Amino acid sequence: MASAQIRDPLDLSHPQRSYPSIQRGTDEQLDTTTEAHANTRPASAEDLPDYAPIPRAAFGPALNEQGYYVGRVERNLYWVTDGTYQSAFLTTKDGVVLIDAPPTIGHNIQRAVDEIASANGVSNKVTHLIYSHHHADHAGASSLFDKNRRAHRP
Question: Where are the domains of the chain?
Answer without folding.
Answer: 13-53, 57-152
